[in-house]
Amino acid sequence: MPVRLSIANKLCSELLGGLLLIEGEILSCSSTTDRKLNFFIETVRPKDTVQCYRVRWEELVPHIPVEHAMTYKFAHWYGGAVSAIQHWPISISGQEAPKPFVTSDIYLNRNEFGGILESYWLSSNATAIKINNSVPFHLGWNDTERTMSFQARYGDSPFKPNPGEAPCAELSYRVCVGLDVTSIHKYMVRRYFTKPNKVPAKAMFSYPIWSTWALHKTDVDQEKFLDHLELDNRYTRRYGDFEFDQTKFPNATAMFHKLKSDGFLVSLWIHPFVNYDSENFHSCVEKSLFVREPTGRLPALVRWWNGIGGILDFTNPEARDWFSSQLRSLRSRYGVSSFKFDAGETNYLPWKFSTRTPIRDPSFFTRRYTEMAIPYNDRAELRSGYQSQNISCFFRPIDRDSVWGYELGLKSLIPTVLTISILGYQFILPDMIGGNAYLNHTDGNRALPDRELYIRWLELSAFMPSMQFSIPPWEYDSEVVEIARKYIALHESIVAPRVLELAGEVVDTGDPIIRPLWWIATGDETAYKIDSQFLIGDDLMVAPVLEPGKQERDIYLPAGRWRSYKGERYEIKEPLHLTDYPVDLDEIAYFVWV
């Protein structure tokens, strides 16, 4: 019997005081000293190089939570969810009682779990954990004891049992161990994640997207939009309308037709809310299209960043059809190519709510919302995702602030993209170059982001799957314009072809396009901790400058044969550390495998 089963045997007999049953590779308990339960650990060997342990603890008495403590002191961990302060590997601080593991808007709720989330973790010691989707899962931690708490419960929680079922908690998950971190992740992705069934439009990878948001916010009109090609917030009179504001856009139909004839494709910002002052609010109430309060008799009013209204119930086929018809109307009337689907996180649902089709896990609402993007997935953009890898469109991390640091700043970008990639989302749009230039969240002495920050952000974005501008480079000076031209051309000529090649492979394998350095250096402790470099595939390594005032940086070069962007060649059998490697303001260090 494997060692871990022996440990489980000891736990069952000594801690539970229960009845043991051991059959081959299964250990089970049917009771403790005070109640009946179902508990088992089963070992399975799905392939020669992988061994897995199925763990299940099911309470048969209602309202008793199940909690397992998992130590993280012996390895570096990755995955779970995006966060406002993003590190790679995961950095845990403080103590947190187990809280619902559900999607949330971390721009407004910075201590919660983010909008792209999966109950999956991966460690540097080649161990992976996948929580079953049926679990009412809560996650806590303690940095003193260096443990994470996995908890299942229904009490004081937005999770609900299925209709007619008693609220008996079940904690079930699988722990798999492989030869190395890369190979075990490949196994888990193929076993537990859905994969995209197609690749978005080539142009989304090759050419920049231009958004109105960071430069104009809600103060957008026809004249300002003609400088941009993704129309963001407040083009309608009220939120929940699907008609253009005639004051701001006096001739929207002709404007869109002219753009289309000139070869431009336009996307519109869209969201799941209908504010109470919208013309559509009353009809949506009459048709029962909104998420409702727990009794199901009345629509639930919710507050979001642009007001108060109802949130469409995407478990309701009628609500889905209504929303889809509004999008189709915009597309046919104006020739809109696609949509930027905003929000979708569960924090915009009431704490207690009801939907047409009951859902146990609130994040399943996020999944249902992301499905609305499927007809437009060639060019669609989503910012939330849960079990949504097969939606096959671009996913965008939550808005970044125009700052340098790890809290929604430039330094958070690589850890965030790596985390999203490990969770199975490979078509990534890394938000707007320079950040969103929000008031009081911008480094610099003017409304624009700091000039150096903007340039470094631009250089990094050129090596991401897609580039997005809002603040145009000509808001600065001619030097910034030339740097932008250089990196747009580099993205189109070097980065996009390689990314498109890898994107085609994602459909078959689910492997990341943007990869951590440990992907090709699985036994190197240093590689496990690097958060400021990344790989595109296995053969293009990128090392941007992420510190203000710096024109040099330390670079970790994995063993192999590399050629730098300057033409230097490195043939090394062991990893090499390049100290204070010179990188001018108009440069980003990158190395190609030769």
UniProtKB/TrEMBL annotation:
Domain Glycoside hydrolase family 31 TIM barrel, first and last residues per copy: 226-348, 410-491
Q: Where is the Glycosyl hydrolase family 31 C-terminal domain?
A: 510-592
Please indicate if the UniProt record lists Ribonucleoprotein as a keyword. no
Coiled coil: which residue ranges? none
Pfam families given in the database record: Glyco_hydro_31_2nd, Glyco_hydro_31_3rd
- Biological processes annotated in GO: carbohydrate metabolic process; skeletal muscle fiber development
Q: Which Gene3D superfamilies match?
A: Glycosidases, Golgi alpha-mannosidase II
Can you name this protein? Glycoside hydrolase family 31 N-terminal domain-containing protein
